[in-house]
Amino acid sequence: MGKLWLKPLGAVMVAGTLLVGGTAWVAPSNYAYAAEVQGVQQNVINVVGTGEIQVKPDIAYLSIGVNSTADTAASAQKANAAKIQKVSNLLKSTWKISADDIQTNQFYVQPNYTYSEKDGEKIKGYTAHHTLTVTYREMDKIGELLDAASQAGANNIENVRFTVEKPENFEAQVIEKAVANADVKAGAIAKAVKRQLGAVLSVSQGDANVPVFYASEALMSKSSADSAGSTEIETGQVKVSTTLNITYEMK
């Protein structure tokens, strides 16, 4: 008895960024279900629209630390406590930074080791480390603040992080750009398959994205005759972006 072959059910879908039409073999018992699914999907276009804008950061997070080394752990910790207190007082009193905007990020005391073939590994003193994360909003005074902190005893300024404090203020702009981007993509797809773009059937939004821009100590320290050797900070720009998943009717 010869084998019975069933002709595949043709399927054409446009989805994702661009779903390619194709054919699929469907078992006889699933023909009705497959036809129903294809009937729903064959007249839609699904695209992802991206919107982004570049904005000047309006908030910075400064990493300001103090290291102290001594023969004993207690001595290192005591010396470091005095230094970090001096830096903290400077930030609060002279620079009028709220205590809520000054937080301890790291604190530890660790032994320092030396090694020789004769004596092996031995402890040679201790280092105390204390780092503050300072939230600061006056972008044009960051370099001056860091210089003042260094003069007060901060000897471990690691980085400055720039970002936008309230990204929701820019959400309408990036959403408009994302919709425009999706319209262009969906229109190009419809034209390519000789159809017309219809109404929007559904929209879902991905998370808004605001990357943090880092300025390392090496990059942010720049001396010049005009600045008399002071630290200059270039805030640059940060990108605010979002994505929209939009489904369009295809006529």
Model regions low in confidence, pLDDT < 50 over at least 5 residues: 1-40, 217-227
Continuous helix count: 5
Q: What's the SSE pattern?
A: EEHEEHEEHEHEEHE
**What is the 3D shape?**
elongated
- Please list the strands of the largest sheet in the order they lie side by side: 5-6-4-7-9
Q: Structural class, from secondary structure content?
A: alpha+beta
Alpha-carbon Rg, integer: 31 Å
Main β sheet profile: 5 strands, antiparallel
Query: Could you give the distance between the termini?
Result: 47 Å
Give the fraction of residues assigned to helices. 25-40%
Number of strands: 10
Global mean pLDDT: 81
Kindly estimate the percentage of residues that lie in beta strands according to DSSP: 35-45%
Description:
With 251 residues, the chain is an alpha+beta fold. Helices cover 27% and strands 38% of the residues. The chain is built from five helices and ten strands; from the N terminus they run E-E-H-E-E-H-E-E-H-E-H-E-E-H-E. The strands form three sheets. Strands 5-6-4-7-9 form a five-stranded antiparallel β-sheet. A three-stranded antiparallel β-sheet has the order 3-10-8. The longest helix has 22 residues. The protein is elongated and about 80 Å long. The N terminus is likely disordered.
Provide key terms for this protein.
alpha+beta; 251 residues; 38% strand; 10 strands; five-stranded antiparallel beta sheet; disordered N terminus; three-stranded antiparallel beta sheet; 5 helices
